[in-house]
Design goal:
Radius of gyration: 17 Å
Distance between the termini: 50 Å
Number of strands: 8
Strand order of the largest sheet: 3-2-1-8-4-5-6-7
CATH class: Mainly Beta
Structural class: alpha+beta
Strand content: 15-25%
Helix content: 25-40%
Order of helices and strands: HEEEEEHHEEHE
Largest sheet: 8 strands, mixed
Shape: globular
Number of helices: 4
Length: 176
């Protein structure tokens, strides 16, 4: 009986290595080229997931509707358990660098720029409906292809794991 219990416990630890242990300072890093998302606790890698990206996966997001997944430093601004895509984590795109580019290129005005900067200062949701685009999420519904409008997609089981592991404010880095 004890052998069976120990075997089951080892299996649970292998599948969900952090369960039963709090994740300290969670951080998400997405590598677009490799189509992977890494979850860290402090500086220790605890999980790697395969992801699908926007239908234009190589480019950095520039504007609404371009199908590109943004690159840069972001944070989770909302956790949505009623998502049309199973579960979702809101990514704080556009960031300040995107706002600077958008203002310079005439995609947004000064008021929109200021609203984006202020949202990032407060770690809240930046404006989601500008010509820079928005509504970028990490969500479920499948990672087998690049099919989103710029989001990062995981398989539902993996999305549930990630959703449960992180909180609002978790840093998100998206790299080429």
């Amino acid at each position: 009986m004890n052998t069976l219990f120990i075997s089951l416990l080892i299996c649970v630890i292998c599948v969900h290595p952090w369960q039963g242990q709090p994740i300290e300072k969670p951080r998400i890093v997405v590598y677009k080229r490799e189509r992977k998302l890494e979850l860290y606790s402090n500086k220790q890698l605890i999980r790697t997931y395969r992801v699908g990206l926007g239908f234009s996966p190589v480019n950095d997001k520039v504007r609404e509707g371009d199908g590109a997944t943004p690159e840069g430093e972001f944070y989770v601004f909302v956790k949505n358990n009623k998502s049309a895509y199973y579960l979702s984590l809101g990514v704080s795109y556009p960031n300040v660098e995107d706002a600077e580019r958008g203002l310079r290129d005439g995609l947004i005005n000064k008021a929109q720029y200021n609203a984006i900067v202020e949202a990032h200062r407060k770690k809240t949701a930046p404006p989601q409906y500008t010509k820079l685009g928005g509504l970028i999420y990490i969500h479920g519904n499948g990672a087998k292809s690049d099919w989103t409008w710029g989001c990062v997609a995981l398989e539902n089981e993996q999305m549930k794991e990630l959703f449960d592991a992180v909180s609002v404010g978790t840093p998100v880095t998206i790299k080429p």
